Amino acid sequence: MKSNLKIGIALSGGGVRGISHLGVLEGLNDAGIFPTKVSGTSAGAIVGAMYCKGYRPKEILKIIVETNYFKFMRPAISLTGILKMKSVGDLFKLYLKDDCFSDLETPLTVAATDIKKGKVVYFSEGNLIDPILASSCIPGMFDPIVIDQKYYVDGGVLNNLPVEPLEGICDFVIGVNCNHLPEESNIRNMKSLIERSVIMSMNYNVYSRKSKCDFFIEAEGLGKYGVFDIKKAQELFQAGYDRVSQFIDENPAILELATKEKKK
């Protein structure tokens, strides 16, 4: 039966653009496609954790919109970051109370970067919240997260589309990127130059893994949104959802992954 297929979904990082992942998941679920394993980096790790816990995409969107994320941040008295990511853990504890990978309804792997060893580390067991914080820890902006005396920063530094934990385990892998860059005829200032350069680097990281995916979903133009542009949450969600509808029209073979009965 189709429902016995092992379907993996890898979710990229991308700040607030990661909200589009929720629209993608909603669209896939509406089509009867449900992952049996999820992997994620940064925003993809956050979305993945909430989804794998059992929250539905629209529930997660509501939580994000109604939560003042920034009130949980604290200044860092440090040379390695201007904010403490660790304090955001209190927010995650409201929704991930058990703080354990084993408590999730769907298996999840989170990618982070060991900044001292310069390598990707994948977390899939033990405590959940610290690896999520580590995976989302933008270098320079946040102090590194310390886990077992090792220092971790954003997983997207080395792997912004962690398909590797799904390889050899899943029958099909769906990669989802939320950072597609529109063409730009005029770079307005240094800020836009730096932001565009960073996203280009992130996308090179993602596209190098595109061939590992059986299906690759990418809503166009999301790179135009700022990394903290939370006011665009609904717009980002809709962009992800609409892209799935278009993708199914263009790639009807993906419906072979659908279950015969939609989950509730």
Automatic annotation (TrEMBL):
Catalytic residue list: 42 (nucleophile), 154 (proton acceptor)
Keyword Transport in record: no
Ranges of residues in domain PNPLA: 9-167
Record motif DGA/G, residues: 154-156
Motif (GXGXXG): 13-18
Positions occupied by motif GXSXG: 40-44
CDD domains: Pat_PNPLA6_PNPLA7_NTE1_like
Keyword presence, Nucleotide-binding: no
Family annotation (Pfam families): Patatin
GO molecular function: hydrolase activity
Record InterPro entries: Acyl_Trfase/lysoPLipase (IPR016035), NTE (IPR050301), PNPLA_dom (IPR002641)
Gene3D superfamilies: Cytosolic phospholipase A2 catalytic domain
Keyword annotations: Hydrolase, Lipid degradation, Lipid metabolism
One BP term from GO: lipid catabolic process
PANTHER family: NEUROPATHY TARGET ESTERASE/SWISS CHEESE D.MELANOGASTER, SLR0060 PROTEIN
Protein name: Phospholipase family protein
